[in-house]
UniProtKB/TrEMBL annotation:
SMART domains assigned to the protein according to its UniProt record, in alphabetical order: HATPase_c, HisKA, HTH_ARAC, REC
Protein name: histidine kinase
InterPro entries with a match to the protein in the record: CheY-like_superfamily (IPR011006), HATPase_C_sf (IPR036890), HATPase_dom (IPR003594), His_kinase_dom (IPR005467), HisK_dim/P_dom (IPR003661), HisK_dim/P_sf (IPR036097), Homeodomain-like_sf (IPR009057), HTH_AraC (IPR018060)
Record organism: Galbibacter orientalis DSM 19592
Residue ranges constituting the HTH araC/xylS-type domain according to the UniProt record: 807-905
């Protein structure tokens, strides 16, 4: 943008320099149509015009020669008229043919000067030339003045179609007419050039012997002299010419050389014509006829004349020289002028650039200042952030240290609890053949807690680089076999196929047994967690030259591509993972593998594949002590969960009691499920869902109450609760949320989703039992309300979905009340739910069967009609949909304790 401005500015300056006019006044364009340029007289005329024109700086003279061709002269005149010359000068070849062309030029508004030869009209601006009649007279008078006795003369005229020839003849003959002394022997008509007269004169001289020859110009006079020479009478005949040109072949020189007796000066008038033209353009007054002086030049005045001409020529040369100097100076002035302008332009540009630079410098310095201030601020903020980060780190460290210390503290009592409960379990087994459910529950959960604490402590050690590997040479398959053993039961239980494919030979690696045990355990736990029933987990070892690869591949839900790079970061869970997890397992696995200089990579397409690569040998384990002692059995610091002992506990109720409400538990922690089943099975028909397909299970079951966790594998508890409450078929079922999420946001979200109660873990069983009671009691109250106030279901105290359902059903029923054929199936279809769902829903909301409810509705309507109308009883019976009045009476009596007739009284 700035460059553009500068270029534009430069362009303006250059335009200013180039456009400045050199001349303020307009030039004067003078066009001159010359008759011919072949002879010296004409050349002299043109030269004098050019010299004179050069004295006028504005005058621009353009000379065109017609080469003695009349047609081309007429064309030239037209061209000058078209070019709109300021003044036109014409020296006509012949008088008559050029007259119209000149008149037209004048008509076109172009001032026209006629020079030397005349035209046949007065339609021109001015004429300039000598008086040719006078010239003829002067010639005759000169002959007369020189003779004593009678003499003869031959006249040689110019082209008689041109005015000078006519007028010179006229003048010459008019004088001779009155003289008796001089006799005109003959007149030869030439064309102004020598060749035209030579032959006729030659012939004439055969018969006459003249004393004088008067030729209308010097050129023809010399032609005559040459003819006289041929006759050898050149000394006897005296010749008088016209023109009197100065110079080697001019008349003056011939007079001086005594070839000519005399010549009559015929001035060209070139310079005068230019003066006249300028005057005309300037609007000054000019005479129409401008006569030039003539003089006879003979031996008497020839020297004087020559001297004068010499001086004149000298002066002219001086003028020309000066003119050249002036021209040179003008050129120098003009180039200097341009130079100065250019320099001024450049100076302005320089000035502009300087100003621009100053402006830019100020701007930059201001910008810099601003940046400095911002920088300063950023620096301060950065320092503050650094300080905060430091503080945060310190506080974090102290928190982590606190938790680590606490974990250590937990570990001892937990280990004590675990070992004690192990002892109790053994004793129990010895006494009763198997240990109790509660003992196994405590044992498993305390082991789980120990594992979690170990994970936390490992994490801390890894963070502080305080883990020391104890590498021993061991077959990696041995460790894998141990870990896989822990998962075999779970795999069977979950219907997950656990496939193992080992390489043939033992795969000896230098590894820390405990570290690798944790790695495999964590990766396999992860695979097990995300592999659905009937899925597959494949473990494979591949031995290569310098490393061993262990691949653990599952057919689980996979890891979203965007989560992969973070999956090994601590506290991170994949976005599609709804299950509770510390997010430490995979982080620890990766750290341990890296301590072994190995790698762990994930491939995920259908399911997930973890590929662990560990280098062979121990060269890579520098700075680590290598243990060469052999260990016979792998001692693990994490015990597997003993599932087998309580797997037998039935998850579905064996005997369904009709009078028990149906309770569905949606929870993926099977231990908790089992505990709940054990505790609640005496009051409820217990049903369990681990979250997979939970909504379908609710639809199949239409339970009386639901206990639901928030972290579920398929959908979250929030979404499930919302879905249940939005669906007409399930909206009436009370939902109790039982979750570990104790934050306020989750609480609000769950209630917004429609949950009826929110309970956090750990919970007291008695409290849960009370909540179940309350929720069911409330439903009972609602049921009473509905069954007794069917026509005014408007209270906002009750669930909107249920109100809507009842209203919709009542409307449907009232519309079909008089139809004895109307069936429960038809009603279910009308409400877009199944017959069983309708039955369960009505039973759940209203506590009666659908057909009882319809009957009740018919009788209520009949009661109304009995009171308010005078319809016959039988009519009323049909009106409310009874097929016979007798059956109506019985039913009415059953409900209201009196017959319809009695009721009406
Ligand atoms: C030149 C010339 C002169 C003569 C004049 C008459 O072309 O022939 O010699 O005086 O023209 O127009």
């Amino acid at each position: 943008m700035r460059i553009h401005c500068l270029l534009y500015f430069l362009f303006l300056i250059l335009s200013f320099i180039s456009c400045t006019p050199r001349e303020t006044k307009k030039t004067i364009h003078i066009g001159f149509s010359q008759a011919m340029s072949s002879d010296n007289w004409r050349k002299e005329m043109e030269k004098s015009m050019q010299v004179q024109a050069s004295l006028y700086p504005r005058v621009e003279l353009e000379i065109k020669s017609a080469n003695n061709n009349v047609k081309s002269q007429i064309e030239q005149i037209k061209d000058f008229v078209e070019a709109q010359v300021d003044v036109l000068i014409v020296s006509p070849i012949k008088s008559k043919p050029v007259t119209t062309a000149i008149e037209n030029a004048l008509k076109a508004g172009i001032p026209t000067i006629v020079i030397d030869r005349k035209i046949e009209s007065n339609n021109y601006t001015a004429y300039i030339g000598a008086n040719n009649v006078d010239i003829g007279e002067d010639a005759a008078k000169y002959i007369l003045s020189g003779i004593r006795e009678e003499s003869t003369v031959v006249q040689i005229t110019g082209d008689i179609a041109s005015s000078p020839a006519k007028e010179r003849q006229l003048g010459f003959e008019s004088v001779l007419k009155h003289s008796k002394k001089v006799k005109l022997l003959a007149t030869i008509h030439g064309d102004w050039e020598k060749p035209s007269i030579k032959a006729p004169l030659n012939k004439l001289l055969d018969s006459v012997n003249p004393d004088y020859i008067f030729a209308h110009n010097d050129r023809m006079a010399i032609g005559g002299w040459e003819v006289l020479q041929q006759h050898n009478i050149q000394n006897q005949v005296k010749i008088i010419g016209v023109d009197g040109l100065y110079g080697p072949n001019g008349g003056i020189q011939y007079v001086k050389d005594e070839i000519l007796l005399a010549t009559i000066l015929y001035p060209t008038g070139g310079a005068e014509a230019i003066d006249l033209a300028v005057k005309i353009v300037n609007g000054e007054f000019v005479n129409k006829n401008n006569t030039l002086n003539t003089v006879v030049i003979d031996s008497v005045n020839v020297d004087l004349m020559q001297n004068q001409f010499n001086k004149l020529v000298e002066q002219q040369n001086d003028i020309e020289g000066q003119q050249e100097v002036i021209d040179e100076q003008v050129r120098a002035y003009q180039s200097q002028n341009s130079m100065i302008k250019l320099m001024i332009g450049l100076l302005i540009l320089l000035l502009a650039l300087a100003l621009w630079s100053i402006y830019s410098a100020i701007k930059i310095s201001r910008g810099k200042r601003k940046l400095e201030i911002i920088n300063e601020k950023i620096k301060t903020q950065r320092n503050q952030i650094k300080k905060f980060a430091q503080q945060l780190k310190v506080s974090n460290e102290s928190k982590i240290n606190f938790f680590t210390a606490l974990s250590h503290e937990f570990k001892t009592p937990l280990t004590l609890i675990t070992s004690s409960i192990e002892t109790i379990s053994e004793q129990n087994k010895a006494l009763a053949g198997e240990s109790s459910f509660e003992i196994n529950l405590i044992l498993n959960n305390s082991r789980r807690l120990i594992r979690l604490i170990n994970e936390l402590l490992d994490f801390r050690k890894l963070e502080t680089d305080s883990i020391t590997l104890k590498p021993r040479k061991i077959d990696v398959k041995e460790i894998l076999e141990h870990v896989l053993n822990d998962f075999k039961l779970e795999a069977v239980k979950n219907s997950v196929q656990l496939k193992v494919k080992y390489s043939k030979d033992p795969c000896f690696l230098w590894i820390d047994v405990h570290a690798l045990d944790k790695v495999f355990f964590n990766v396999l736990s992860n695979a097990m967690k995300f592999t659905p029933p009937h899925g597959k987990i494949e473990v494979e070892t591949i031995e290569e030259v310098d490393k061993v690869k262990i691949s653990i591949k599952d057919t689980g839900i996979g890891i979203p591509q965007e989560d992969i790079e973070n999956i090994f970061n601590p506290f991170v869970q994949a976005s599609n993972n709804e299950r509770p997890s510390s997010g430490l397992g995979l982080y620890i696995a990766k750290q341990f593998i890296e301590l072994h200089k190995g790698t762990i990579n994930i491939h995920t397409q259908k399911g997930t594949e973890f590929v662990i690569t560990i280098p062979k040998g121990y060269e890579h384990l520098q700075h680590v002590e290598i243990y060469t002692d052999h260990i016979n059995s792998i001692v693990r610091d994490q015990e597997p969960l003993k599932r087998s002992e309580y797997e037998v506990l039935a998850l579905e109720p064996t005997v369904v009691q009709d009078y028990f409400p149906n309770l569905l538990i949606i929870e993926d922690n099977m231990d908790l499920c089992r505990l709940l089943v054990k505790q609640l099975k005496n009051d409820f028909n217990m049903y369990i869902s681990n979250g997979d397909g939970a909504f379908k299970k609710v639809l199949d079951l239409i339970p009386d109450v639901i206990i639901c966790d928030l972290n579920l594998p398929e959908t979250s508890g929030f979404e499930l609760a919302k879905k249940l409450k939005e669906d007409l078929r399930t909206s009436h079922i009370p939902v109790i949320i039982l979750t570990a999420m104790a934050d306020e946001d989750s609480y609000i979200e769950a209630l917004t989703a429609g949950a009826d109660f929110y309970m956090t873990k750990p919970f007291q069983m008695d409290a849960l039992k009370q909540v179940l009671k309350t929720v069911l009691y409330n439903k009972e109250r609602l049921r009473y309300y509905y069954t007794n106030k069917l026509d005014s279901v408007t209270s906002t105290d009750f669930d909107k979905e249920e109100q809507d359902f009842i209203k919709k059903m009542n409307k449907y029923l009232l519309n079909n009340l008089n139809n004895p054929e109307f069936s429960v199936e038809e009603l279910a279809r009308g409400l877009h739910i199944s017959r069983v769902q309708l039955y369960r829903k009505v039973k759940a909301i209203l506590g009666v069967s659908v057909s009882d409810y319809i009957n009740g509705l018919r009788l209520e309507k009949a009661q109304e009609l009995l009171q308010d109308t005078s319809l016959q009883i039988s009519e009323i019976a049909y009106e409310v949909g009874f097929s016979s009045p007798g059956y109506f009476s019985t039913a009415f009596k059953n409900k209201y304790g009196m017959t319809p007739k009695h009721y009406r009284g």
